[in-house]
Amino acid sequence: MADxxxxxxxxxxxLGPEANNxxxxxxxxxxxxxxxxxxxxxxxxxxASEEDAESEWVDLKKKAPFDQxxxxxIAWLLDRSWFSxxxxxxxxxxxxxxxxxxDARCSNPRDKIYAVLNLMSEHDRRAIQxxxxxxxxxxxxxxxxxxxxxxEDLALLTICELQDDRGELPSWVPNLSVPRRCxxxxxxxxxxxxxxxxxxSDKDASLVATGRxxxxxxxxxxxxxxxxxxxxxxxxQPRPRDxxxxxxxxxxxxxxxxxxxxxxxxxxxxxxxLICNKFSDxxxxxxxxxxxxxxxxxxxxxxxxxxxxxxVDFPNSGGNFYSTSWFNGLNRSFIITEEGYIGMxxxxxHPGD
Length: 353
Prior knowledge:
With 353 residues, the chain is of the alpha+beta class. 35% of the residues lie in helices and 9% in strands. It is built from twelve helices and seven strands. It has helices spanning 2-7, 22-35, 68-78, 86-92, 111-114, 122-127, 136-151, 240-258, 260-265, 267-274, 293-309, 319-329, and strands at residues 36-39, 44-47, 198-201, 206-209, 217-222, 332-337, 342-346. It has a three-stranded antiparallel beta sheet, covered by helices on one side. A two-stranded antiparallel sheet has the order 1-2.
């Protein structure tokens, strides 16, 4: 299928009827395509013509010169169901996003990698040769080393989950043969766009990467646990009332650990941590489901007050706040470090880590 798409002179896609100013969105994307050239093999961006060489079209530090209405129309267009179908992503996405096929079903777990080789860059196809004599763990390790060392990029570490049942897989290799336990928190990049310095030690099968230690875990408390019977690992979202109750237990624990005065001073920080700072003021354009920071903070403040006052009434608003907190915290732990930092960590995190 990949060869068919690659050889086609033109591919026409039906996205659905016009809605939400979609015509303007398509025209804007046509304009963008006429201004830039993308080299997908080397992940570079350049101007399509000399007159655009110094413009905002190719300056990644500047947003493209569209107005807010146009940005919103583009966001609505890309939110259509066609873009979320797995077979579409397998045809159009680059190798960096290849890990999103993780939950697709394969009779042979090696095919999580081999089945999409034709969709990867030429560099990756040369580096990863199908070999069914290799163990599954070796195939997954080869993918990680190709991406990490070949591109000097540690992005795939974000899909490594530290389950207790990893078998012979080292902690830095994602286990693509089992369902995810946590939802991916996108756009998490503590190192920004800096180049990753890493090397592989064959002696002890370890990946050695340069980093910075920012703290040592002192206290750990689990967020929400998925139904163990779920076939997907992440399970179905529980009732808002149950999420609210779980949040109250977590907030009560944080309050007891920090002390009342310190907890009150850290209220905004805790709120941002629960939502992973994904508020409307951090997105351009603003997504239709983005949370408003001030509104969300008021919902969290009300929840904190109910903990302090020992009330049990369930609020009539704040549903998006509770569902987002559940999405981010599912099968993760809330941590407090010896240095006083707070954050989220894998469910298997322990004091001293």
